[in-house]
Specification:
It is a single chain. By secondary structure, the protein is mainly α. A hairpin with a 2-residue loop joins strand 2 and strand 3. Helix 2 (58-77) packs antiparallel against helix 3. It starts with a strand and ends in a 7-residue tail after the last helix. A two-stranded antiparallel ribbon has the order 1-4. The chain has one domain (24-210). Helix content is 69%, strand content 6%.
Length: 217
């Protein structure tokens, strides 16, 4: 957005006003994304965890704590600009939820979940050794989506153990995060797009399964 330059005429003399003031929309979108995260998504999720309504899967949030923290650094290197702020908050949030899940999280953990965790941790180790940032960002996107599997399965079986509104808001925040990117390239876009879609999938699973699964009080 640019505030147009105007001129004032007095006594036949033209006096130019100050030069155009450019409002940084990228910064604005980044702030909106952060506010949506901090005000709209995080409080209800944390509240529901502490009240034993939401039971996060520890494996999922452990994987995300590692991947999102590293992805934040990759995004910064790829000139993601202000969008990096929102991802950094997401990484801190993921670590907080993981720690809470050790006490309040689900005990519905299967061998398949454990295989996913081990595979993801091994993949993360390989990912850290990669010299190509491009290959690394695609790999972290795959690892992060793989980390959703334990929560997908758990939510399908126990849809009342998640907070659907938070997942919807996470996705909305990510849309503004995409708008906040300073550059659109293969380093900055794949990861954010992948987690946005995955968040929406979990939201849909939660809502659709609640129609057929009776809530246990």
């Amino acid at each position: 957005m640019v505030i147009c330059n105007l001129a004032k005429v007095e006594s036949g003399v033209r006096f130019p006003l100050p030069a155009p003031v450019e409002i940084n929309l990228k910064f604005f979108f980044a702030i909106v994304s952060v506010l949506i995260w901090v005000v709209g998504a995080v409080p209800p999720y944390i509240r529901d965890i502490i009240n034993n309504k939401t039971k996060p899967h520890a494996y999922t949030w452990l994987i995300w704590s590692i991947t999102q923290g590293t992805a934040t650094a990759v995004l910064w290197i790829g000139k993601g600009g202000w969008a990096t702020i929102s991802l950094l908050i997401g990484a801190i949030f993921a670590l907080l939820v993981f720690l809470l899940s050790l006490k309040y999280g689900t005990r519905n953990i299967t061998k398949g979940d454990t295989i996913v965790l081990i595979s993801s941790l091994l993949a993360i180790f390989v990912w850290w050794q990669l010299d190509s940032p491009l290959i690394a960002v695609f790999m972290v996107s795959i690892i992060d989506v793989l980390g959703y599997w334990p929560s997908f399965r758990k939510t399908y079986e126990e849809p009342w153990t998640e907070t659907p509104v938070s997942w919807a808001i996470f996705s909305i925040a990510n849309v503004f995060n995409i708008l906040a990117l300073s550059e659109y390239n293969l380093l900055t876009l794949p990861y954010i797009i992948a987690i946005t879609i995955a968040n929406l999938v979990l939201f849909v699973i939660c809502l659709t399964r609640r129609r057929v699964v009776t809530r246990v009080i």
